[in-house]
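Posting this for the archive.
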Amino acid sequence: MVDKARALLKVIRKIPMFYGLGSDHTHMVLQACAFRGVASGECICRVNGRSDEMYILLSGQLGVYNEGQMLLASIAPVAPVGEMGLITGQPRSATVSALCDSNLLVLRKVTFDRLMRSNGKLCVQVYRSVIEAMGQRLGESRAERQRVGLRRTELEGKLSEFAEEVAIGNGSEEV
């Protein structure tokens, strides 16, 4: 039992919003969580649904689907699901279902909010970690947009060259 608790504490520390928590605070977060097993195909949350829980995938695999039920991504352990909705209260942005039998830690919003209100130091550290994670995501998104823009410019140039070659090959002087 002690080994399982240690393993779960390590899992909590791997979640970006809980980075930097001391052992007492990590233990408090773990105590606030419930364990849930989900069967393959079981829906965990639906797009536009209430964000009243976050999940930490311990084992198994989850699928992320858009409104049209197209698989957008799969999630492998150890990963959080719904952590931003837990904080913002915004509706779910996707449907998440188990792709195989999976095990989760579940942190309910009411429990999370109570925990944040009852411990100022924990609250500050969690929100600081969330802000840092969001900043990192924004930076990654910005860098990806720049890469896509450069690639687009490169492809447009190649397409223009190709169009000129085709036009010249067909005896046309202008494209």
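Strands lie at 34-38, 43-45, 53-59, 62-65, 71-75, 79-81, 95-98, 102-108. The first helix runs from residue 2 to 14.
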